[in-house]
Amino acid sequence: MSQASASSIPATSPDHHPDILACHQLEHHITGSGHTLSILKGIDLQLKPGESLAISGASGSGKTTLLGLLAGLDIATGGDIQMFGQALAKLDEEGRAALRRQRVGFVFQSFQLLPTLTALDNVLLPLQLTGVSEAKQKSIAALHSVGLAERLNHYPSQLSGGEQQRVALARAFAGEPALLFADEPTGNLDHASGRHIADLLFDMNARCDTALLLVTHDLNMAERCQRHLRLRDGRLHHPVQQAD
Ligand SMILES: Nc1ncnc2c1ncn2[C@@H]1O[C@H](COP(=O)(O)OP(=O)(O)O)[C@@H](O)[C@H]1O
Ligand SMILES: [Mg+2]
């Protein structure tokens, strides 16, 4: 049973730190076979350093689309996005990729580990690609911090889903990102593993002072973020007690 909230509202936060991420009147429409699908219809949000913001919504509400646009993985059909004070629209694909490599981490529902690399090498490779110093020590330390010290040389196929997601968390945090995007990070896990991953995610978010943008249909996880907004009909709303 759904309840409509009063209106679309901007996700602004009260203090005056510079935004890590902001968007204004973000729209996304996809045209195909003669009709247009409007997925996002004017999204405003701001995320400050170290802050956690959850965007929840039903399956198909546009959460993954929104995350992909905010991360500069796709181009919106309208509106502005600023990441670290830079307008994504003014950067080409390589410029956006360079921005992400330096300061952005990702955690996905499907872990997205490279199957031919060990846990250690999955964490190490992105650090080496960005030329981080002491990459191997940092990778080992990150895997220790997620409780996988005994699994450094295991391949993804030799790890449980929860363990694979812990490797993905270590990979995301090893580079000490200022901004982490997480898309349904517990969506493929059983309740206990999901709970463990959520605990680790919020612990690392707090410890590393990483800003977190979490998209999820899991209201329990969304409620653990400092702010929680709900995506419905292409707009952000304050959440109501009952799920859509
Ligand atoms: N490239 C695309 N082409 C056509 N439709 C798309 C495309 N990407 C997403 N959609 C549609 O947009 C809607 C939102 O999708 P998505 O962002 O994946 O939602 P969510 O992550 O909330 O489940 C869905 O109806 C989906 O089918
Ligand atoms: Mg999705």
Q: What ligands can be seen in this structure?
A: adenosine-5'-diphosphate, magnesium ion
- Order of strands in the sheet with the most strands? 6-7-8-3-9-10
CATH class call: Alpha Beta
Structural class: alpha/beta
Number of helices: 7
Count of spatially separate domains: 1
Helical percentage: 25-40%
Strand content: 25-35%
**CATH topology term:** Rossmann fold
Descriptive keywords:
binds magnesium ion, 244 residues, 6-stranded mixed sheet, Rossmann fold, alpha/beta, globular, 7 helices, disordered N terminus, single chain, 4-stranded antiparallel sheet, binds adenosine-5'-diphosphate
Overview of this structure, please?
This protein has a 6-stranded mixed β-sheet with strand order 6-7-8-3-9-10. It has a 4-stranded antiparallel β-sheet with strand order 2-1-4-5, covered by helices on one side. Residues 1-10 have low confidence and may be disordered. The termini are close together. The chain has helices spanning 63-70, 93-103, 119-129, 135-145, 161-174, 191-207, 219-223, and strands spanning 21-32, 35-47, 52-56, 78-83, 86-87, 104-108, 179-183, 211-216, 227-232, 235-237. It is α/β, with parallel strands linked by helices. The protein is globular and about 50 Å long. The chain has one domain: 3-Layer(aba) Sandwich (Rossmann fold). Strand 7 (179-183), helix 6 and strand 8 (211-216) form a beta-alpha-beta unit. It contains 7 helices and 10 strands. It binds adenosine-5'-diphosphate and magnesium ion. Magnesium ion is lined by residues 63-64, 183-184.
